[in-house]
Amino acid sequence: MMDEGELEQDLRAALRPVAAPDGLAERIISKAEARSRRPLSQNHWLRWAALAATLTIGTFGLMRWNEKRQADRIEARRVAEEFTLAMNITSRKISQLQKTLVVNIPLSFHSEGQ
Amino acid sequence: MNPKHLSAVLFFSLVAFAEQELDLSFLKGLEAKASEFTDINLGPEQLQLMMGFAGDVGKDLLGLGKSIERVQVKTFQFDKEGIYSIADMDNLRARLKADDYVPFISVKEKKGFTEIVMRKGPKGMRGFVVLVAEPRELTIVNIVGDLDMNSLGKLSGKFGVPNIEMNQGTKSGKGAKGGKGENDEQER
After folding, report:
1. In this structure, how many other beta carbons lie within 10 angstroms of the beta carbon of residue A34?
2. Is 0.95 topped by the overall pTM?
3. Rounded to whole angstroms, how far apart are CA atoms A67 and A74?
4. Mutation for A interface: B110, B141, B154, B184, most A CBs within 10 A
5. pLDDT in tens, B32-71
């Protein structure tokens, strides 16, 4: 059976500090730097490209929307003018008919009840 | 009937009802002989577009446009008589005697006629057709929608529309009396 002193010695021997191989720290740091530097630059490029594309599409869309809106406004004004003219012609004709009817109705009818 | 079919039938009936465009193709070619010609045909899409620009259009016009689905106006003015025949209008008049229409006013004159025909709808009148055939002038107006003569009367004095008196139900029967401008001249 192992006593406490032997166990402690074995543990100390097993857990003794071991020196790292030469240049290990430099290799790890350089690998980490290389790995992080490459994707970072790619991400930036993609972000700028996405932003530029969004801006281009957005600007183009806004211009198209504005053009359409202007065209619609002009068309709406034309429609309003035609609509007004149509109402004008309609009411003029009804007014003319009304005058014809009034003229043709005997005067006694007009004075009825007065 | 399958509910889907029923809704489809209803939908197409409504679309057809909303259109109600008069076929005036028989007048084709007449514009070339006219000294003045007006052709206005505004459908639901164009009227909706007009309604979309409320600020540009004006409140009164907007209120009127809300109740109208189609406006069709054709006018011809001729330098001399006999350019068109009153008989050319018979086909259209016959169509306006169908069940969908109710004769409202018909005035026969020496060389022409004036007719106003109301269009029937499921809930009352759905617009009207005005036909005015004079020796040197021909006018056809087709208005589809909830606009009646009284609504039109409310336009008096606006947009260059002459005064129209719609005194339904009044006992005095003064007719056009009270209107200004042209009507006054007749009264004198």
Report:
1. 9
2. no
3. 11
4. B141
5. 999 999 999 999 999 988 888 877 666 777 777 788 899 9
Residue pair B138/B124 in contact by the 8 Å Cβ criterion: no
Length of chain A: 114
Band of the pLDDT at A107, cuts 50, 70, 90?
very low
* Closest to B126 in 3D by CA, of B153, B95, B101, B96: B101
CA-to-CA distance for B169 and B137, rounded, in angstroms? Answer: 33
pLDDT of residue B34: 93
> CA of B129: how far to CAs of B49, B95, B139, in Å?
24, 11, 10
Nearest to A89 by CA among B89, B162, B79: B162
Q: Reading across the β-sheet that carries B124-134, which strands appear in turn? A: B36-42, B68-77, B137-145, B124-134, B112-121, B101-109
Banded pLDDT at A40 (limits 50, 70, 90): low
List, in sequence order, every residue forming a beta bridge with B39; answer none if it has no partner. B74
Residues 65-84 of A with CB under 8 A from B: 72-73, 75-77, 79-80, 82-84
